[in-house]
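Form 7-S
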Amino acid sequence: MRDMRAEIPAKLKGHSLGAGRPYPLGATFNGEGVNFAVFSAHADRVELCLFSEDGRQERARIPLKERDGDIWHVYVAGLGPGTQYGYRVHGPYKPQDGHRFNPNKLLIDPYAKQLAGRLNWNDAVMGYRVGDPRADLSFDPADSAPFVPKSVVADPSFDWGDDAPPRIRRSDVVLYEAHAKGLTRTHPDIPPDIAGTYRALASEPVLDHLARLGVTTIELLPVHAFVDDRFLIERGLKNYWGYQSIGFFAPEPRYMSHGALWEFQTMVRRLHAAGFEVVLDVVYNHTGEADELGPTLAFRGLDNASYYRLQDNRRYYVNDTGTGNTLNVAHPMVLKMVMDSLRYWVEVMHVDGFRFDLATVLAREAHGFDRHGGFLDAVRQDPVLAGAKLIAEPWDIGPGGYQLGAWPHPFQEWNDRYRDGVRRFWRGDDLMTAELAKRLLGSADEFDHSGRSATASVNFITAHDGFTAEDLVSYTVKRNLANGEGDRDGNNENYGDNMGFEGPTLDPGIRAARDLRKRNLLATLFLSQGTPMLLAGDEIGNSQGGNNNAYAQDNETGWVGWSDPDDVLRRFVARLAAMRRAHPVLRQRMFLHSRPRTRDGLPDLFWRLPDGTVPTSADWQDEAWRTLCVEIRTSSETPDYAASDDVVFAVFNAGSETAVTLPDCPEGQVWEAILDTTEPEAGPYVWTGRRITAPAQSVLAFARTSSRKDPA
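Output:
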């Protein structure tokens, strides 16, 4: 290591420099100093900038004179955790060639484990002169350092004690999609000083609620550091959901009360101790730097031509994400960054899995979507990620972007066809009974190939993107004016049904119909094969006032409202989760295809008309058929040693009151009614007859049990 003390700026006297090492990337504290390493393939010169403790004053600039391949590095002795820093990178400013270097712009370290400060939307954060007729072809000399977040040298060490991942079997998982702030911001039992933070997510009131509810895995909307879009700030709004990542290693500071990594780590440790998994919604498809008219905050100024997918003319960005840019995951160093980030969150932050936003972007090669492409192969072979849960949002707006069912094992997928099919069946749309049958069975038509299991289908009725369950039964038209986009944003077709009145109402008949519809939707979810996902707040009747795109509503609209929770619905959802746990046939790994089983020669599934007969081809095409009955047994593909004697008979009646014939039971057994959505708090009871009456608009479920139980 050659002596570089002669090159130390005056304000850094006492801090000797060394060549450092090219790996690991980022800022790494070794107990005596910090090694800095950053990637840029096209830069001419890289400078490390060190700042005062408050991040306001730039104290020193250190040239990174050591370069191994495309990694620039230096070691600074005497520095430690808490040091604020950034980079300035010199090189050609030639947007038409794909290069946008501007050393006047302070850059966030892509590998920063912690950030300090918020983005201030001053024109100085742009690499070009705002208002110049040449637009992004112009060059801006203003210093952006006062206006951008600073990277922070972090000490990620933490006393994890005996923490261990719960490793919940996929067949037992019940996902709970929640926002790190929104779930707790208004909870009456959470202290105001931590409400809306990571610590609040693992507070006793939340842990108790999750435990009573029966969910197993909390799926958090993005917690990677992100920026608020300029157009939102100008409207007096914020980016609430967080899908504008600017740091793939740093937790978002706005959910911290002390600005420290231990807050996130403590959250994970407490959730694990209570038996819950933590899955992160991650956004590796684009960054918060937007298109050619966006800010220069990190990747653009470090090496625009490497980090982003550019069009043939090199000035403009490929926009398969709808956000202005697309990360170039096909580049080995960008892929490495994504893989390093995933491993970091598993190894250092102890999370249990990931949900990949607009995942098709990550699997798109030069020739199109490739289920054996570089990213998917890298993830699937990585030993650190071997036990992590991996969930894809299987679409984007690029060419061939819709890829539901195309992902390889062990990926699970958000299933929008399940969402739409179930909504339309209960809305009363024609010819949806056959569609419901497909979705009840884990969407085998999409997922039963290549050794995949029924749990590959992540079933949901609602998610953060769209109506809540309460709004789904209260509105037929979205109400997004508060977003400031003239109600043009958000999905126009939600398959909602207001039950006769648009919006809130005190009419008892309409309220009762809405409550029943919510119970039918949720009961269908928990009776379906696949992995159920519940949207946080749906269990207590949370509404967003008809806003189906609350991405900018960091307020009472977007937050879960705890002021008047629907306790009847909450208990009903808990009952559904308990029912699913109690009956293995409702959460099978193997698909059901009405094929005979080796153990008894009986098919693993029987479809029935209400009168007990088998539906014909004509029945499946009958527009008037609204009552689907199904008897579910252990799959014929399940080995005998893992088979269960569990049998469930379910009725989904989207029509009027209907007489239903129950299947025969073997001698010594009877049917026990375990669910009736029209009587949400009625207990199980034994049914000794063969005929029942399915109330209008209802879901019923029966389980075979010993006849030694006392009949009702």
